[in-house]
Amino acid sequence: MIWIERYRPTRFEDMDGRKQIVNALKGYTIENMPHIIMHGQSGSGKKTALMCLISHLYGEAPEMRPRTIEVTSGSKKLEVAYTDSDGYMEICPAKYGHHDKAIIQGVIKEMGQTKPILSMFGGATKKTAIKLVAIMSAEQLSVEAQAALRRTIEMYSGCLRIVLVCEELSRLIEPIRSRCFFLRIPGFSNTEMVDVMNKVLEKENYSVPVQTLTEISEECVGNMRRALCVLELFCFNMADGDGKRVKTQDKCMKLEWELIISSITLIIKSKQTSDGFIEIRKLLYTLLNSCISSRTILLELFRQLSTGVDSKMLLLLCRSALMYEERMKKGTKGIYHLEGFVASSMCVFAGGA
């Protein structure tokens, strides 16, 4: 088992550096708990906070079981995968694209209409009759799916509690936001990340220099999941023993697709020509063929381009990124909008915008 799963806290008492979040969630029971939106950057601990909340509500960590169900969307039948335990279900409708509305209407409504097994036995309480549904990557749901979810929240609020886990709160429609309690999960500070990594290293019986841990924490920018993955890779390479992998330790801080985007950034800043544009197009196709989403490419490219520029150039890059992100959401061919953003950025750095 990888380290991020092996050492994931399952109780509020085990969560490091999350006192305010623990205090906000610890007072809830399944009866008085509202619908919740957990939002924050990737790797900030949203899933961990959710698992600790479930352990608190039901008295023990959930034993998740993989399930599949067949859902009909128009003339197409989908095999929808999700995980559940007694009284709890976790699902990600967004990964099924424009079929997410049918999944909301089918799977989640069906769960709201059925009773948990425990509630059918004598002495059942209100607690056993209320179920918890966690929707992952909620910001990626289509507007139609979010509208269907809003109606589901209204109809089954007596027997369902919905937890929406997302990175961007602004992409959820206002009717859903107005019905939920917001809980922002902030990223980890560098000190907190170093402390957690030291605890993991102690349990795994590894010794890593403090300078290396500091570099990992600075590179991961509050993303604990990534920090632990990089640390595990570092320890794996360090334990190889043949001395060949030690030379490449500095490269494990960045993923391959991020290095490609760094190359694109360098070309945009230094080579605003047609040859440079063609070279970038090939790199963009390489990224898209590696299943890196066009929006992820756009955001990372903007982040790298905006580093170290003056306020005027930053404003122009922001306008361009916002425009092409909006077009990307409405269109189906991300490569066109990525190329448009690259061309616009070249004009900015060439002084022609």
TrEMBL record:
| Gene Ontology terms for molecular function | DNA binding; DNA clamp loader activity
Instruction: Note whether Hydrolase occurs among the keywords.
Output: no
UniProt keyword annotations, A-Z: DNA replication
Q: Which GO terms describe its cellular component?
A: Ctf18 RFC-like complex; DNA replication factor C complex; Elg1 RFC-like complex; Rad17 RFC-like complex
Known Gene3D superfamilies for this protein?
1.10.8.60, 1.20.272.10, P-loop containing nucleotide triphosphate hydrolases (3.40.50.300)
- Which SUPFAM superfamilies does its entry note? P-loop containing nucleoside triphosphate hydrolases (SSF52540), post-AAA+ oligomerization domain-like (SSF48019)
Classify the source by domain of life. Answer: Eukaryota
Query: Which Gene Ontology terms describe the biological processes this protein takes part in?
Result: DNA repair; leading strand elongation; sister chromatid cohesion
**What InterPro entries does UniProt report for this protein, alphabetically?**
DNA_pol3_clamp-load_cplx_C (IPR008921), DNA_Rep/Repair_Clamp_Loader (IPR050238), P-loop_NTPase (IPR027417)
Q: Which Pfam families does the UniProt entry name for this protein?
A: RCF1-5-like_lid, RFC_C
Q: Which PANTHER family match?
A: REPLICATION FACTOR C / DNA POLYMERASE III GAMMA-TAU SUBUNIT, REPLICATION FACTOR C SUBUNIT 3
**What is the protein named?**
Small subunit of replication factor C
Q: From which source organism is this entry?
A: Ordospora colligata OC4
